[in-house]
Amino acid sequence: MRPAISLVAIALLAALPPCSPTRADELPAQEAPTAGAVASPAADPRIGAQLDERRYRYEVDRDGDYRLTVDLDQGRSQLVYVISAVERFGAHRVREIWAPAYRSDAERFPEEVANRLLEDAQMQKLGGWVKQGDVAMFVIKIAADASTRALDDGIDHAIRAADRMEIELTGGTDEF
What is the domain-level CATH number for residue 121? Predict the structure, then answer.
Protein backbone atom coordinates (compact mmCIF):
# COMPACT_ATOMS: atom_id res chain seq x y z
CA MET A 1 0.00 0.00 0.00
CA ARG A 2 2.83 2.42 0.71
CA PRO A 3 4.08 2.49 -2.92
CA ALA A 4 0.59 3.51 -4.12
CA ILE A 5 0.48 6.37 -1.64
CA SER A 6 3.96 7.45 -2.68
CA LEU A 7 3.00 7.40 -6.36
CA VAL A 8 -0.12 9.44 -5.64
CA ALA A 9 1.92 12.00 -3.69
CA ILE A 10 4.51 12.23 -6.46
CA ALA A 11 1.78 12.64 -9.09
CA LEU A 12 0.13 15.40 -7.07
CA LEU A 13 3.41 17.23 -6.58
CA ALA A 14 4.31 16.88 -10.25
CA ALA A 15 0.95 18.37 -11.25
CA LEU A 16 1.55 21.55 -9.26
CA PRO A 17 2.56 24.60 -11.27
CA PRO A 18 6.11 25.82 -10.73
CA CYS A 19 6.49 28.37 -7.98
CA SER A 20 8.64 31.42 -8.13
CA PRO A 21 9.99 33.04 -4.98
CA THR A 22 7.66 35.73 -3.71
CA ARG A 23 8.41 38.34 -1.10
CA ALA A 24 5.91 38.56 1.73
CA ASP A 25 4.92 42.10 0.72
CA GLU A 26 3.99 40.82 -2.77
CA LEU A 27 1.48 38.28 -1.47
CA PRO A 28 -2.20 39.19 -1.85
CA ALA A 29 -3.79 40.35 1.37
CA GLN A 30 -6.39 38.10 2.95
CA GLU A 31 -9.83 39.42 3.68
CA ALA A 32 -9.95 37.51 6.95
CA PRO A 33 -7.58 35.51 9.11
CA THR A 34 -7.06 31.84 8.35
CA ALA A 35 -8.24 29.05 10.62
CA GLY A 36 -6.39 28.98 13.89
CA ALA A 37 -5.72 32.72 13.81
CA VAL A 38 -7.77 35.24 15.73
CA ALA A 39 -10.87 35.69 13.59
CA SER A 40 -13.35 38.52 13.48
CA PRO A 41 -16.34 37.73 15.67
CA ALA A 42 -18.70 39.09 13.02
CA ALA A 43 -20.73 36.42 11.27
CA ASP A 44 -21.28 36.89 7.55
CA PRO A 45 -25.01 37.75 7.29
CA ARG A 46 -25.15 36.43 3.71
CA ILE A 47 -24.46 32.93 5.01
CA GLY A 48 -27.12 33.29 7.69
CA ALA A 49 -29.67 34.30 5.05
CA GLN A 50 -28.74 31.32 2.87
CA LEU A 51 -28.96 28.89 5.78
CA ASP A 52 -32.33 30.40 6.76
CA GLU A 53 -33.55 29.96 3.18
CA ARG A 54 -32.75 26.22 3.41
CA ARG A 55 -34.24 26.08 6.93
CA TYR A 56 -31.08 24.89 8.63
CA ARG A 57 -30.90 25.21 12.40
CA TYR A 58 -27.62 26.78 13.44
CA GLU A 59 -25.82 28.86 16.01
CA VAL A 60 -23.04 31.37 15.53
CA ASP A 61 -19.91 30.57 17.53
CA ARG A 62 -17.56 33.09 19.14
CA ASP A 63 -15.48 33.26 15.94
CA GLY A 64 -18.53 34.27 13.90
CA ASP A 65 -18.74 30.87 12.16
CA TYR A 66 -22.00 29.02 11.60
CA ARG A 67 -22.27 25.76 13.55
CA LEU A 68 -24.87 23.27 12.36
CA THR A 69 -25.77 19.86 13.74
CA VAL A 70 -27.67 17.91 11.10
CA ASP A 71 -29.78 14.86 11.94
CA LEU A 72 -29.07 11.81 9.78
CA ASP A 73 -30.56 8.36 9.37
CA GLN A 74 -30.32 5.68 12.05
CA GLY A 75 -30.25 8.22 14.88
CA ARG A 76 -26.91 9.70 13.82
CA SER A 77 -26.04 13.37 13.54
CA GLN A 78 -23.16 15.30 12.00
CA LEU A 79 -21.55 18.54 13.05
CA VAL A 80 -20.60 20.96 10.27
CA TYR A 81 -19.25 24.51 10.24
CA VAL A 82 -19.62 27.16 7.56
CA ILE A 83 -16.73 29.54 8.09
CA SER A 84 -17.58 33.24 7.83
CA ALA A 85 -14.04 34.30 6.97
CA VAL A 86 -13.31 34.57 3.26
CA GLU A 87 -9.87 33.56 2.04
CA ARG A 88 -8.19 35.08 -1.02
CA PHE A 89 -5.54 33.90 -3.39
CA GLY A 90 -5.10 35.97 -6.52
CA ALA A 91 -8.52 36.20 -8.18
CA HIS A 92 -9.98 33.42 -6.01
CA ARG A 93 -12.21 34.16 -3.03
CA VAL A 94 -13.23 31.06 -1.11
CA ARG A 95 -15.19 30.09 1.94
CA GLU A 96 -14.66 26.84 3.81
CA ILE A 97 -17.11 24.23 5.06
CA TRP A 98 -15.67 21.97 7.78
CA ALA A 99 -17.01 18.67 9.11
CA PRO A 100 -15.11 16.71 11.79
CA ALA A 101 -14.93 12.92 11.57
CA TYR A 102 -12.19 11.56 13.81
CA ARG A 103 -10.43 12.51 17.04
CA SER A 104 -7.02 11.03 17.79
CA ASP A 105 -5.92 10.05 21.27
CA ALA A 106 -2.45 11.35 20.42
CA GLU A 107 -1.05 14.44 18.72
CA ARG A 108 -0.23 12.39 15.63
CA PHE A 109 -2.79 10.31 13.78
CA PRO A 110 -2.08 6.59 13.62
CA GLU A 111 -0.45 5.68 10.29
CA GLU A 112 -3.43 3.58 9.18
CA VAL A 113 -5.82 6.48 9.82
CA ALA A 114 -3.65 9.03 8.03
CA ASN A 115 -3.28 6.74 5.02
CA ARG A 116 -7.01 6.02 4.92
CA LEU A 117 -7.78 9.76 4.92
CA LEU A 118 -5.32 10.30 2.04
CA GLU A 119 -6.88 7.46 0.06
CA ASP A 120 -10.36 8.84 0.63
CA ALA A 121 -9.32 12.37 -0.33
CA GLN A 122 -8.27 11.12 -3.75
CA MET A 123 -11.78 9.77 -4.37
CA GLN A 124 -13.67 12.89 -3.30
CA LYS A 125 -15.38 15.13 -5.86
CA LEU A 126 -15.27 18.14 -3.53
CA GLY A 127 -12.93 18.75 -0.65
CA GLY A 128 -10.40 16.70 1.24
CA TRP A 129 -9.09 15.86 4.67
CA VAL A 130 -7.04 18.12 6.92
CA LYS A 131 -5.62 17.70 10.41
CA GLN A 132 -6.90 20.37 12.80
CA GLY A 133 -5.14 19.67 16.09
CA ASP A 134 -6.18 16.14 17.02
CA VAL A 135 -9.23 16.11 14.72
CA ALA A 136 -9.57 14.99 11.11
CA MET A 137 -11.76 17.54 9.32
CA PHE A 138 -13.31 17.20 5.91
CA VAL A 139 -12.96 20.63 4.28
CA ILE A 140 -14.70 21.90 1.19
CA LYS A 141 -13.77 25.24 -0.37
CA ILE A 142 -16.52 26.97 -2.31
CA ALA A 143 -16.69 30.35 -3.99
CA ALA A 144 -17.22 33.07 -1.39
CA ASP A 145 -20.25 34.26 -3.35
CA ALA A 146 -21.64 30.75 -3.96
CA SER A 147 -25.35 30.41 -4.54
CA THR A 148 -27.60 29.00 -1.84
CA ARG A 149 -27.79 25.74 -3.79
CA ALA A 150 -23.99 25.49 -4.08
CA LEU A 151 -23.63 26.16 -0.34
CA ASP A 152 -26.28 23.53 0.39
CA ASP A 153 -24.52 21.01 -1.89
CA GLY A 154 -21.21 21.70 -0.13
CA ILE A 155 -22.76 21.22 3.30
CA ASP A 156 -24.46 18.01 2.15
CA HIS A 157 -21.24 16.58 0.72
CA ALA A 158 -19.20 17.49 3.81
CA ILE A 159 -21.79 15.87 6.08
CA ARG A 160 -21.90 12.65 4.07
CA ALA A 161 -18.11 12.36 3.72
CA ALA A 162 -17.43 13.07 7.39
CA ASP A 163 -20.13 10.80 8.80
CA ARG A 164 -19.12 7.94 6.50
CA MET A 165 -15.49 8.28 7.59
CA GLU A 166 -16.44 8.61 11.26
CA ILE A 167 -18.36 5.33 11.03
CA GLU A 168 -15.43 3.63 9.28
CA LEU A 169 -12.67 4.86 11.59
CA THR A 170 -14.50 4.55 14.90
CA GLY A 171 -16.62 1.46 14.36
CA GLY A 172 -19.82 3.48 14.44
CA THR A 173 -19.23 5.99 17.24
CA ASP A 174 -21.18 9.23 16.74
CA GLU A 175 -19.02 11.85 18.48
CA PHE A 176 -19.55 14.50 15.85
Answer: 3.30.1460.10
